[in-house]
Amino acid sequence: MSNEPAAPARCWHWDGTAGRYCRALDGVRRYLTGYRCPLHTPAALAGRPEVP
Ligand SMILES: [Zn+2]
Q1: Residue 2 within a domain
Q2: Structural domain harbouring 36
Q3: Which of the residues in the chain have pLDDT under 70?
Q4: pLDDT tens digit string along 8-19?
């Protein structure tokens, strides 16, 4: 990952059903794929338990 400009820590998971980004603010953490809320972490999307 290269340096990125400061951005709001929002979940940028694309919700294809709703046709918009999740953009949740609560509990957002940064993952390899970017910021994700607890519902949309890579592990959650893969149906696996969260890795500490
Ligand atoms: Zn989300």
Answers
A1: no
A2: 7-52
A3: 1-8
A4: 689 999 999 999
For residue 40, the tally of other CB atoms under 10 A from its CB is: 22
Report in angstroms the alpha-carbon separations of 42 from 5, 6, 36: 23, 22, 8
If you measure from the C-alpha of residue 16 to the centroid of ligand 1, how many angstroms do you get, rounded to a whole number? 12
- Specify the residue for token string 């592990």: 43
Distance 41 CA to ligand 1 centre (A): 8
- The total number of structural domains that make up the chain: 1
Q: Which residues surround ligand 1, an ion (CB under 5 A)?
A: 11, 13, 22, 24, 37, 40
**Spacing, Cα 11 to ligand 1 middle (Å):** 5
Q: What is this structure's pTM?
A: 0.73
